[in-house]
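User: My notes are a mess, but here's the protein and 2-acetamido-2-deoxy-beta-D-glucopyranose's SMILES. Can you give me a structure?
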Amino acid sequence: MQSLPPFLFLFFFFFLLLLSSFLSPSLSSHESDDIEFWCSNTPHPEPCRYYLGRNPYLGAPKDKAQFYKLSLRLALDLTLRAQSHLKRSGPACRRSPEKTAWLDCWKLYANTVLQLNRTLAPPPGAGCTAFDYQTWLSAALTNLQTCPKGFRDTRASAELIGPVVRYNVSDLVSNCLAINRPAAADADRGRFSSWTTFGTRRLLQLSAAADVVVAEDGSGNFRTIKEALDAASKRMQSTRGSKFVIHIKAGVYNEYLQVVSSLSNIVMVGDGIGKTIITGSRSVANGYTTLSSATFSVFGDGFVASGITMSRRVKWPGYHVVRRPSIMRPFTVGRFIAGGSWIPSTGVPFNPSL
Ligand SMILES: *[C@@H]1O[C@H](CO)[C@@H](O)[C@H](O)[C@H]1NC(C)=O
Ligand SMILES: *[C@@H]1O[C@H](CO)[C@@H](O)[C@H](O)[C@H]1NC(C)=O
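Assistant: No problem, the inputs look usable. Here's the predicted complex:
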């Protein structure tokens, strides 16, 4: 081995110096190239570029998983900012219809924060899949779209809600939905089989009878569904997470119901379509907003209803976006809770594909 001549060392040194001076500026342009690469593949590239370029969480995403996480964090941040803007506009909405529309928005934004937060940090050990995240993100998106709709429907002054909408949170949530879609489709395929065995095992352990019976004629525990939901609410404080089955006998129930987000796993079983009917007569034209005019709105998780006709306006925030039959199917009683294996034993007629 012969040693290198000294001038070659010097040359090498300068070469390295030159190289590093070339590298450092190209590092930051590389970063914006990355942002461009990721954002150009989303349905709303403009707000993606804008917010990702200013993101407070170090640097550009390195892979799809990071991009997804980052988009979720930004969506949650912006929702919180939009929410505080909404809060500040509250005092200006003292009178109807602005006040009603504003109150709806307040609930809808609070629920959006909840949905995004749990998509970002799912409860540990719950075994949540990309399919669940997709459901929660859909819920968040519907909420965000329902809020300005309430202002439009009641002809409330849109000036009040304009600044809140301009945060473009729904664009960012749409992007998250798009990024997560392929993973959700995979999880959906795997989900059915695991739910069936898991659901059957668990639900067979449930008591065969309903927890409470609602009957218009007084032959049950309660005459109104509202009372049954109140009972469920009380029960749930001691037994969190378990299912609460409400059997609603044939009859017409003129009620406005809300399954709030603290009420989870409510199962409502009617006596059949056209027999158990939940109705209401509020309408947007009468001065109620989209949300408050709903005969039935569901914020709670794991809600299942079967054998019930809900007449007029039924709105399940977050769940009504899911319209495609292939997506709906997992939520029907037969599949979602493996109803076929246990509801017949309660003697309650049901339609597994409702
Ligand atoms: C938010 O949406 C509005 C209207 O679509 C658009 O003009 C604006 O540029 C968007 N903001 C960002 C940051 O993309
Ligand atoms: C998000 O969830 C975590 C854990 O449940 C909670 O500590 C945090 O306060 C939540 N953040 C918001 C903005 O709701």
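The first strand starts at residue 212 and ends at 214.
User: Great, I'll file this with my notes.
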